[in-house]
Amino acid sequence: MRIIKRVILFTFLSLFLLIILVVLVALFPPIGLFRDTIANKAGETLGVEVRIGDIDISTLSHIVLKDIYVGPPQGGYTRPVFEMKELALRYSVIGAAFSNEVVVEEILIDSPHAALETINGKTSIDAMLANLPPSEPKPEEPEEVEEPETPGEPSPFKITLKKLTIRDVRAFADIGTHVVDFHSLGVDISGFFSQLESHFDVAVNIAGEPGKPNIHFEQRGAGELPGQTQGGAEEEQLPATDKGEEATAATAENTADKPETSAIPNPVPVKADIELALKIDVAADHVLEPKADVKLDFMLKSHSIDTIWKLEPLQLNLNVEAVADMKEDSAEVKRISFSFNREEMINLRAALKGLIEQKNIDVFI
């Protein structure tokens, strides 16, 4: 799970940085005229090649960046750190002065692909960030005592998001001992928010081509790890010499300085191709005191598992339907169903009263 969390964190960090770039483009429209200069400057700072294929800006309606590319850093890395077909923000602010509403017509994040490689224990992200100039420490400032704010009337200002689409997310991570290659994640969000009322619909969908795997996983054995021998320990390279006695003495001296350590079990090599399908639908009202309906369908199926043991194919299915109402301080799990290799193992429903201070739970199996 740690490697998957790192991949997800890295992917969304990259998206966040790109959104910051879009905001800068919006605030400073002439920046589009210096697209190549900006890309070259970013590339020089990070020590990688940076390209932006096209920038289309209309201050009152849209900002679109296409064919974004952040290449691999120097040092033997081969995969681009980040690529994206399109990042688009389309909006309408003309009516905001008359209706207290800003309408975001669309946010599109199309085909973001992130890659993390490891060479000699150093990731491509670390290699890229090492090129950044060191930051100067901020001078200490006296702490200001903030006076408590008097709550005012709820603002009628509303932000409406008609469509946020994240399409075809792909992430690759190689951290030396493990490799994960994941693709086919999509997210759709729509809704509106204000302090008076709010509603959001969120749909998350992971589904590649039906019947085909969309996750490749590897765990390397000791003999496959870069710079390691079959015994699992790193092999120290001594300089070549024509005098056998000097080489023997140098080896004995190096060995004498090293404390004895217990043998570490070699990792078992594993290669697996897995099909993951996940669908989550959330409908939420009143973000400040939320009421939400949640539906989740999850399926995990192995297509091939290559290891020292013979493993039969497996399939896991999980289905959940639930409702939560913070204002009413209650929740209901309408259904939880879990199946293993198509045989239902659990079918459960539950009602909870007292989400903040728990009062009672009724569970039916």
Description:
The protein is of the alpha+beta class and 365 residues long. It has helices at 2-27, 35-46, 96-99, 124-129, 244-256, and strands spanning 50-58, 62-70, 82-92, 101-110, 113-116, 118-119, 122-123, 158-174, 178-193, 198-206, 215-219, 270-285, 291-306, 315-325, 330-340, 343-353, 360-364. The strands form two sheets. It has a 15-stranded mixed sheet that branches. A hairpin with a 4-residue loop joins strand 9 (178-193) and strand 10. 12% of the residues are buried. Residues 227-253 and 258-262 have low confidence and may be disordered.
- For the termini, the CA-CA separation is 30 Å
Alpha-carbon Rg, integer: 27 Å
Secondary-structure content class:
alpha+beta
Share of residues in strands: 35-45%
Mean pLDDT: 78
**Low-confidence blocks of residues:** 227-253, 258-262
Q: Count all strands and give the number.
A: 17
Biggest sheet character = 15 strands, mixed
The arrangement of helices and strands along the chain is HHEEEHEEEEHEEEEHEEEEEE
Helix content: 10-25%
The geometry reads as globular
